[in-house]
Amino acid sequence: MKEVKSKVQHYIPQCYLRHFSLNKKNLFVYDKRLSKSFSSSTAKVGYIDYFYELPEKFIKNLSEIPSGTSFFEKEFFAKNIEAKYCQLIGIINSKAKSWFTSQTKEEILNEKEKSFLAQLIAIQYLRMPDIREKYADARKKADALRFDIIKSFIEFTDPKLKGEIKNIQLSYDEAYNPILHSEMYSDEEMYLNIADLLIKKYWIYFVSESNDFYTSDNPIIIKPHLPGQLPYWEGFGMKGAEIILPLGSSVLLTCWDPNCIKEVKNPSDSFCPINEKEKREYNCLQYMFSNEQTYSYHNDFKLISLLKEINYSKEFRIKKPTILVDGK
């Protein structure tokens, strides 16, 4: 029987989004493109059609690959990565609810579970559309530079060919982008290195009984606390960086660089209450760094309205980082 391909392929797992839903099916969305909020099912947000589908023309021995061109969507993510991600996030959210009642310190994740979660956070970051766009853009720049060098060399060795060489144009096949991207998020060395950087940080789980943490279609935020630092390892290794990821409407994980430990007043690997000012700041970041959509348990986006007021009624959009090739 021919493999049925899933058109809707989520880069934000539904199992994650359900922790921002009252009924585990629907949540509230603020959309920058539409400048309005609405209710939506978790199945209809955080996806791009055929996002992880692999073009057949780039694959040898396709019949030997489980699920064929849908390998990464069905085998890598759905059966492996998201299953473990869902389990660990579920543990954290469940323990957070218990903590609201007892407020006694207990182990949130054991060493093995924490290591797994660090790897899954790294993979989640690497699987995002922004990463594909950034590295595809860098690939195009690098290819263009190499092409110019080759043309210059040919013109130098045989000036008679200068006219012919000038008319040769380089083309880039956009269909290769899913392949290029898969080499990023499935690169064990890369995600293990990022995970190792995360493990060395100081983990604080902020909690809110009001179920009012936002998340977004770009939920992992890297916030610098020291000026002039280079974004080593996508920013995870940046000195002074705080890594931010809401894990549910009532739990937000922050991972702090030990160099900035003076800013943290709470013990590591613990649940800590959050004040309203801090909560607003984290929710502002989710909206500002979102690509298009911010998600919430409640239909309450007054904070976004206030942000727009101070921005002359315009949506906040953060300029996406690029990789420079030969200074461009």
What this model shows, in words?
With 328 residues, the protein is of the alpha+beta class. It has one domain (25-310). 40% of the residues lie in helices and 16% in strands. It has helices spanning 14-17, 71-102, 111-126, 129-157, 162-166, 177-185, 188-199, 276-289, 302-310; strands at residues 8-10, 26-31, 36-41, 47-49, 202-207, 215-216, 221-224, 241-248, 251-256, 270-273, 293-296. The strands form three sheets. Strands 7-8-9-5-10 form a five-stranded mixed beta sheet, with helices on both faces. It has a four-stranded antiparallel beta sheet with strand order 3-2-11-6, covered by helices on one side. A two-stranded antiparallel sheet has the order 1-4.
What would the keywords be for this entry?
alpha+beta; 328 residues; 9 helices
Please state how the strands of the largest beta sheet are arranged side by side. Answer: 7-8-9-5-10
Helix percent band:
25-40%
Low-confidence parts lasting 5 or more residues at pLDDT below 50? none
Q: What is the ordering of alpha helices and beta strands? A: EHEEEHHHHHHEEEEEEHEH
**Overall pLDDT, averaged?**
92
Q: Write down how many β-strands occur, each being a DSSP E stretch of 2 or more residues.
A: 11
| End-to-end gap | 49 Å
Structural class: alpha+beta
Whole-number tally of structural domains: 1
Number of helices: 9
Largest sheet: 5 strands, mixed
Strand content: 15-25%
The coarse silhouette is globular
Radius of gyration: 22 Å
